[in-house]
Amino acid sequence: MDKLLLTIFALLLSVAANTAQGDLYSGEVVVSSQSEVDRDEVIPDALIQVLQKLSGQRELPITRELDEALDSAGQFLLSFRYKNVVRRGIDGAAIEELRLIARFMQPEVDRIVQLIGLPRWQQQRPTLQIWVVIDDGGNRQLKPVEYEYAWEAMKDIAALRGLPVSWPELDEEESELIDLRMVWGGFTDYLIDQGAPGDGVAIVAARRDGPRWSLRWNVVADEQVWYWRNEDRELLFALLEGVHQLTDQIASAKAIVASEQMQWVVEVTVGALDNARDYARCLDYLQNLSLVTSVAILGAEPGRVHFNLQLNAAPEHLDEALNRGSLLVASDPRTGFEYEFIP
User: Fold this and answer.
1) DSSP string for 48-66
2) How many helices (H) and strands (E) does the chain have?
3) Which of 250, 209, 212, 245 is closest to 228 using CA atoms?
4) Nearest 5°: phi and psi at 317?
5) Burial state string for 299-333 with b = 16 or more CB within 10 A and e = fewer than 16
6) How much is the pTM?
7) Lower CB count within 10 Å: N or C terminus of the chain?
């Protein structure tokens, strides 16, 4: 039985390793064409985006180590592909873009993060539902369609920074049940009580004051609350700056400082793995944790597998990440890293 389980896991490991760390270790940048010259030109930009997502930093420190990493960015490339994207301009016109999606090798990128001395934003990140109410002087509307270009840009910036976001998608009946005055007032508790999905809520109340837009942000996420204002002559610029500040706040609250990032090895036991599908989901989950550099299988028995995890941060951060996840629950806090799988 042990040999059979180990064989299954060896096969699953080879497959899952190719798909693990997909989003955080991938950068998406606009490219002029699919030529090798144009691809090589933007690969350093894609690596910068990955480092921004992993660290939560809007700006990276200018260091010799960063310059050397960017000069060698092509050597860290694991795979790449292209996709066509149609965006909307401010005038409503369609803008076509060709984008390169470059995925980099996790161990090499983790090494760069440590060499540069970047913090590491934990992978278990809250998904924020963003509610934007626009007051243009005539009436107040929730996410009006004429500003679709702004919503697309906000979503792109959030993705570039590694912040999961969603929008309220309400039908006519649901819209009538929402008290827009409460939303405009920034009452995040009201939306949470209404069953807003996700791990947090951001309310953006935008009003035009003469030639400028004034924005008020009320955010609750991961049991923390933030409030600030910003303004700009252009609504789009004010919204994008707000998304950056939103990401800065959340990332800094859950960042692991560079001094705590070392090489650690821990043994983790997972029970209640009843079939090969459970094994695959558990393995993929562990490999996709940004704190985990590599996963090895120490042994297996019916329904239980013993893993050896190489970490790039202290073990207590792993325990916190696993407890915040949805697939594993601690069997007994006194027994160390022992968990039960929840299908």
Assistant:
1) HHHHHHHH--SS----HHH
2) 11, 16
3) 245
4) -70, -35
5) ebeeebbbbebbbbbbbebbbbbbeebebbeebee
6) 0.73
7) N
